[in-house]
């Protein structure tokens, strides 16, 4: 083992790790990427084909530079890899006019409109009657707020991971797949990463282990995250053409309680599961990747349809053609955690999920890679340091 083996070892090659490996290789670093499986795989946070992206990010202005940059990079990746990654179908957000105090975010339509206005992003606040007349399939009641962003859309999440890993390899990165990292230890001017197959030295290490974050992170960071089980459903629709990204925007419908949230994703071009994808959110019961129940019962499907789908949309049948379990890695404040590890500033931990990380992922990877390569980044990672 040479202490100068690699400039950078990336542990975990999901949405975040693939982006770091791609950008770091492009910056000329000698990169080793290690994953316990073969990403994109279905066991962590990056599955189920698509992710919502919005330039007007109601989660806070600190995210805006990252999502803007991510859109630029996806467009570049599309040219480089000949893959379609970003579908700008637009997005509608619907919220309660009187949200319950203590919700995850302030009124999301109001915050989104504010960020759009400050950031020069096109955004239309709509009345419920306007939503109903433009989208007859949405049964929005009169006592809701609503807004539409034309530049919002869907990112092909699994394809984006695949493309970045392929391009990282083309730029010289070494990938070790189906190899689990057992430990990460600082050793003077490098860090040793241990797997059952051996020990690897890197000048820097990035831990981007998604829902497995607590296993390798220092206790002070591990305590700040919690993993929750989420279910994604695909329902058969009466007319497939009416529920594609060419025909309709995505919908984020935020209810009074966090668990009343639903997201509706139209079907992207190029195949995929032939139906509309709809998911909920829950933060009430914690789990971990080893013990999570990955089965979705018929009772769970029926309850979700009756409570969340039928009252809100028409044209969607109760026939669920696919259901998947996916994992959120939530921080205690719902924002990202990207920071130096207390054991060594040669180790960077990266836990940007809380259910909204994908849209920022490639720009976050770029910023982390720039920091390691040059000591600074174009976009400011400071807001994501641990509190
Ligand atoms: C259901 C669902 C819907 C979502 N919707 C959206 C959305 O619409 N818009 C949005 O922006 N975001 C969304 N998100 C969030 C987004 O998907 C996540 O932020 C993102 O996928 C997190 O990626 P990650 O790289 O942190 O984790 P992962 O993609 O899970 O990657 C972690 C990787 O680390 C590897 N690993 C872990 N431990 C080890 C080890 N010891 N050794 C080797 N390898 C290891 C794993 O195998 C895995 O490949 C959603 C998330 C979920 C679950």
Q: What percent strand?
A: 25-35%
What is the count of helical runs?
9
Q: How many extended strands? A: 20
The succession of helices and strands, N to C, reads EHEEHEEHEHEEHEEEEHHEEEEEHEEEH
Reported by name, the CATH topology of the largest domain is D-Amino Acid Oxidase, Chain A, domain 2
Integer-rounded radius of gyration: 21 Å
Q: At CATH's second level, what is the architecture of the largest domain?
A: 2-Layer Sandwich
CATH evolutionary superfamily of the largest domain: D-Amino Acid Oxidase, subunit A, domain 2
* Form type: globular
Low-confidence stretches: none
Blueprint (SSEs and pairs):
Elements: E1 6-11, H1 15-26, E2 31-34, E3 50-53, H2 64-81, E4 86-87, E5 91-96, H3 108-119, E6 124-126, H4 128-134, E7 144-149, E8 153-156, H5 157-170, E9 174-176, E10 183-187, E11 190-195, E12 198-207, H6 213-216, H7 219-222, E13 225-237, E14 250-254, E15 262-265, E16 276-280, E17 286-287, H8 298-309, E18 316-331, E19 337-341, E20 344-351, H9 361-374
The structure holds flavin-adenine dinucleotide (FAD).
Protein architecture, described:
- The chain is an alpha+beta fold.
- The chain has 2 domains: 161 residues, FAD/NAD(P)-binding domain; 176 residues, D-Amino Acid Oxidase, subunit A, domain 2 (D-Amino Acid Oxidase, Chain A, domain 2), CATH 3.30.9.
- It is built from 9 helices and 20 strands.
- The strands form 3 sheets. Strands 5, 6, 7, 13, 14, 15, 16, 17 and 18 form a 9-stranded mixed β-sheet that branches. Strands 1, 2, 9, 10, 11, 12, 19 and 20 form an 8-stranded mixed β-sheet that branches.
- Helix 1 runs parallel beside helix 5, helix 1 packs across helix 9 and helix 2 packs across helix 9.
- The protein is globular.
- The model has no long low-confidence stretch (mean pLDDT 95).
- The site of flavin-adenine dinucleotide (FAD) has 39 residues, from helix 1, strand 3, helix 6, strand 13 and strand 18.
